[in-house]
RNA sequence: GGGCGCAUAGCUCAGUGGUAGAGCACUGUGUUGACAUCGCAGGGGUCGGAGGUUCGAACCCUCCUGCGCCCA
């Protein structure tokens, strides 16, 4: 695949198909580098059920840019990759498949079902790993991980046992977020709140034993959005300072329907301003009420429960729910309760005035209510009282909070710190049990009395229990429990000393901000507790990729963009460049196909430049250091290359992906292609030119550096060109980063080429504005030139003639008659245009330039005549202004003189 | 209700104190064989509004308007 002629057309698909297998088969994603500094990045494991979406494309492109950059800089860069077993998602997929055959999970034993999941995983899981390869991601596939691998099971079990031993995992009876659709508990992070149209019903709760309120009423009015829960009400709460109710605190209410006698309690949770000021309390079915209930002295074990796992009504412990309600689904129960309350006369209707001005009575007040939904099932979540395993997140959060505060972990962009602290400082116990079959089974065993024994093995548990018969906990762990171990369990912990190997802490973690709490924070908690150090030095959070109209992409909206389709259309390199160029520290990225197309064009431009170079015998550079350069143009481009490499290093150090992309784009196209290649054409095209050897060496070196610098973003085209340009001792992916030694910068050469570019541009501009035919070659006269300018003209005559279509340069006076006059520096350049020139057009052009200069002169004079500026501004700013004023003033004078000569 | 972010050229976005840039789009034009997926030249912005700090504000502060996200 080396040293061949570069084809005329650039075909990304062909190149991509060849290079990826080459890199992977030769083990170049993780070459042997025994003495190199380790550098480690772990990839957020995609779900085993997942396929590549545009967010993955962004996330993985950024990571690959970092990895390829560090690999080029000589690090022993390791990018850990793998797949997450994704408990709920995967179980759902397999259950859906069974459903198509008319079967369900419970038709099988647990072992049979889990076997089916493994079968599915082997056959169709992990599609995404192939798709990541198409994107060009250089992960260490030889160490591919799965969160259900045996060593992962061992690590997870050990962590559970150890945390339990440390008192950081415990079993507790609390309200959980119960998903009746999936029939499992989920964590608070997996609950999404959505505002929906609902109702607010007002009920009378009669006071018992003849008690009355201060105003004589014999009932308390309560309001609720979930009337069915009254079947399990255990109290009515009023604010302790609310005088309307002070006479009844401690008295009883006799609940309609169940006839349960419940106390009126004083609790600050009741808001006197809201509704009647009294609230019904259902501790077993509401998070706030649970707390009120506990404060009122009701133990969680005594709290009434009225729903089963399917959210159907079941009899409460006191047996007071009438039979007619038992077995009703929760929303039917709601209607039934309202109907019953209305029938019994306890419903307080809501009066509204119609458009016609009439009064109408409704059963309930319409109201927007926040409703919790499960993020996977989309079912309305039910707070439900159960025994579950909890992680003491509050305790584990302490170290990460400190680490972020003292800078041991850097969060980029910093603005996320506040959100991070806000969550970590108000964190709730993390419910980690899931009532699923697919996942890490909780290593807890119970004896007949319900005592739990937590151990690595059943045998150990049995020993703890003194040999009594035990049954294992049916539940599995939250998927995020295992992925929280990702930075070290993937690398062999606890059997391997990942810290000693320099692989922990990882160097950086890249993730979307949407999993900051789900994953990033939990890795910090686990990593810091278990390994005593931060899991990563830096956390880079990027945003979301949005649709072109700014909307969030979603399957249900049908506005998703398939990254593989974009790769087919524009090439993986172009998509990657787009992602890199648009990534400016965490801001969301709006999809813009025009840009992707533009970056495809950029790749084509580079392709053609390389083809041109090859046509003139320019090829693989022989040294990493820049070759010796003597001409100004060669010195200049070497300097520009080095400055670009420095800009790229700076961009990477700050995680400024956009700056990286912009710098290499600008250098390649606007410096190398637009100017350098054009400037050296006279040297290349003249047979036996004295500068030819040097120029070819420099051009080859610069082109190589472009390939190196661009490689992290566009790996495919650069590797292809690398080999096409000559025989290489190694592949580009493992070549060496640019040696950016500032000693190779030459200010004088840079000044000369900058001057040349300014002159060419000025001549082109005036020709264009004066409508000089593009092909016309015209003589150039120069007046007032300094000796330096004269020397520069002499050195650059060939380039000038070519680029500005000049036919000879003369220092003698220009012939009389109409001419274009161009002011550059101290000199004025004259192009006679007798008979061709439109004098009015030239006058207008000169006047436009003179006016622009004049405007700046006035502004600068204004600033410099301000005493405060002179007194308070830094000396450098004043000096700069003075210099600029002098330059612009001189330019204005020359332009005025030119105008005068024109008459 | 609390918090965060955004508002810069027609579009998508850079720009954290010295007088505004890129890509695309637009207009004109095409010269010697790298490239029309291109070259050259050009037009286009009172930097959302108001006030303040400063010699100087797109940039810092306050308020306002509009949009987005997160939490309750």
Automatic annotation (TrEMBL):
Pfam families recorded: Anticodon_1, tRNA-synt_1, Val_tRNA-synt_C
Swiss-Prot/TrEMBL catalytic activity: tRNA(Val) + L-valine + ATP = L-valyl-tRNA(Val) + AMP + diphosphate
Keyword Disulfide bond assigned: no
Domain Valyl-tRNA synthetase tRNA-binding arm span(s) in chain numbering: 838-903
Coiled coil: 836-898
Record note on quaternary structure: Monomer.
NCBIfam families, A to Z: PRK05729.1, valS
Name listed for the protein in its UniProt record: Valine--tRNA ligase
Organism: Pacificimonas flava
Taxonomy of the source species: Bacteria, Pseudomonadati, Pseudomonadota, Alphaproteobacteria, Sphingomonadales
Gene: valS
